[in-house]
Amino acid sequence: MFATPILLLLATAASDPEVCITLRGPPALVDEVRAALHIPEPCRRVEVRVERVDGALLVATTEASRRVSTARMAATVVESWATPPAFGEVVPPPGPRPSMAAAPTGEVVEIEAPARREARVGIAVLGEAGIAEGDASMGGLLVRGDVRFDDLFLWGGARFAFAPRYGVGSYWDSRRIEGALLAGAEFRFRLGPVSIAPGLATGVNVVRAETIDFDRSRTSPGLVFEAGLRGEIPLADALALELFASADYLPMARGREIDPAVALTLGPRASPDPRWVARLGLGIRWGL
Q1: Is the CB of residue 243 less than 8 Å from the CB of residue 281?
Q2: pLDDT tens figures, 184-197
Q3: Which parts of 62-106 fold into alpha helices (H)?
Q4: Which of 8, 62, 110, 287 registers the highest number of CB atoms within 10 A of its CB?
Q5: What's the pTM?
Q6: Contact 146, 228 (CB under 8 A)
Q7: CA nearest 167: which of 139, 140, 132?
Q8: Domain covering 4-9+117-287 in this structure, CATH number
Q9: Residue 255 and residue 258: Cα distance in Å, rounded?
């Protein structure tokens, strides 16, 4: 729905897994260092050359170099350079700044960044804005938890929504407060690092309508049927940005009892309870 163009744009810009580490040098030495490497996650791109100089191993980039005695120590240096700093950039280690163009010919090994680990269980908090039947604007909050089985998601959540003004005419103007419990299922499609998951959900809701000009209120339960489209954009190992678009149908929505003459004049518009609501949500998901 609303989120689809944004997600497709991000997915189009996404590419295959990026190269994390490029090793250059004599084939035997490159293979030895590669075997000792533990790829950090997340991993930033770094190009490194390794060679034997005066009985030691020289590990160098265009920014810095280190001399070590073993391939394991060389791998540790490469891992440290490929690990993003926790707070801003770090000062490169001391040493000469050799030119990469001066590197000896030999094997070139490109190592891809490790695949991002997915959390099987997660909790998401989303702020929502929507429009209901009768052109009423709504705001709210959705808190949901999900369990993943490969590309199948099962989720449950609670929603709070509030419409500051809803109704027809000053007499029927009302505030509308809604609470709902939902459960649903989604199936995910991957577009590079972005995923899109259409799904269906159902649940129960309780609506309280309060008149603005008169001291009247009514609380009524009902059912909710929801069709939704969720998008997820990974930000970090256990953190993702979520976009959620949905359309709700409330089959039990009904109007308050009014004078028959007024009902004939206003018709279905006399009801303070909308039968459909369209929503757009944006929030964060934490993997557990």
Answers
A1: yes
A2: 999 999 887 789 99
A3: 71-82
A4: 287
A5: 0.58
A6: no
A7: 132
A8: 2.40.160.20
A9: 8
